[in-house]
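Structure tokens please, single chain.
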Amino acid sequence: MLLFFAHFPASSQKYSLEKSSVSFFSEAPIENITAQNSKTSSLLNATSGEVVFSIPIKEFKFDKSLMQEHFNEKYMESDRYPKAIFQGKFLNLNLDEKGEQNVRASGKLTMHGITREIDVQGTVEIVSNQLLARANFLIKLKDYKIKIPQLLWNNIAQEVKVTVEFTYKPI
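Here you go.
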């Protein structure tokens, strides 16, 4: 992430993450699964829209410890793939616009050893000197080769809803 930050022009408006929330929700007939993570790190060049963030997989917290154990060991293999990383751009971000604005984040998401192009709709709100970024999107488990055992096929959705909320502060 430091290499990404190093190529930001000196005149750009740079932000780091002050507060983060990444959660996911999997709806299934037997039991819904949800987890929260507040340990994301991120840098944003608001002038160019370039953004990078890193989510430590083991920091997702579940209501049930057994779910957390299975998530890390059987599905995400977090010892082998410890982070999910997004590197891309906020498109159509206007620093002069007040209030909430619709933006797109487009770039590469690497998770479970697989890198894929993604394009996500979201919002950015500029409040005082902070940027509040929010988005909801779906991740297909098969796109990242996250395998679900046949026995649990009905317990875990094939698509997982991801919600991100980031509060950036100027550097």
